[in-house]
Design brief:
The protein is mainly α. The protein contains eleven helices and no strands. The chain has two domains: 161 residues, no CATH class; 52 residues.
Length: 231
């Protein structure tokens, strides 16, 4: 009887605390999809194919607001551009993987899977890299899918008093704070946050706050870094 690799179990265990934030985040995504007119089957398909919480919510809201297709696609692309950086960063650890394994890994890539895996690889060189990554990523995928299905089925039946809309920002804050390791990253994060709030307050539609804040935040981080902000 085949045994489950210990590194896989380590990945599931390390991701477990994040499941507490992912589950309500997924419920919100499922509810939002149904509220904006998608059928339950479309909501489930959207979640399983796209599998990108932040961009899913952004796209759902934009589609519900009848935003131009270019804005919907552009917002999703900008929100997910960070995946290119994650991929470039983690690629050296996956260099010897088969093409099919790399393809599966790319589909399962999330902020949480990246952050936990990179931290693990950095402190334990003997880790079975794919087993650990797979443990983290698959457990997150399963929780997300079940949560979005539950949200789609419940629809608007979830009490607003539960405040589930705060789940998404809390999960990202939990990942963001440890990543602010130097002045450049701190400048990028703070500037992006301030700009995002300012754009929302200004009433600019179609979630352009995400695009504007991302661009300005990156520029701020590069500016600080170029002037020696990392020392």
């Amino acid at each position: 009887m085949p045994t489950v690799p210990s590194d896989f179990l380590d990945g599931v265990r390390d991701a477990a605390p994040l499941h507490l934030g992912i589950a309500p985040f997924g419920l919100v995504a499922g509810v939002a999809a149904v509220e904006q007119g998608l059928s339950i089957f479309h909501a489930i398909g959207f979640s399983s194919v796209v599998f990108a919480g932040a961009s899913q919510l952004a796209m759902i809201e934009l589609l519900g607001a009848d935003a131009p297709l270019a804005i919907v696609v552009g917002t999703a692309v900008v929100v997910n551009l960070r995946m290119l950086m994650y991929s470039a960063s983690i690629a050296p650890y996956f260099r010897n993987f088969a093409a099919r394994t790399k393809a599966l890994s790319s589909y399962l890539l999330t902020d949480q899977a990246y952050a936990l895996s990179i931290a693990r690889y950095g402190r334990d060189g003997d880790t079975d890299r794919f087993a650990y990554y797979f443990g983290v990523a698959v457990s997150l995928w399963v929780v997300w899918q079940f949560a979005t299905v539950a949200g789609a089925l419940l629809g608007t039946g979830l009490p607003p008093a539960w405040g589930l809309e705060f789940a998404a920002p809390l999960v990202f804050l939990a990942l963001l704070v440890p990543a602010l390791k130097d002045r450049a990253s701190a400048a990028s994060g703070v500037t992006g946050g301030v700009v995002a709030v300012a754009v929302v307050v200004a009433g600019i539609p179609f979630h352009l706050d995400i695009i504007v804040a991302a661009v300005v935040g990156v520029v701020a981080g590069l500016a600080v870094s170029s002037f020696g902000g990392d020392v």
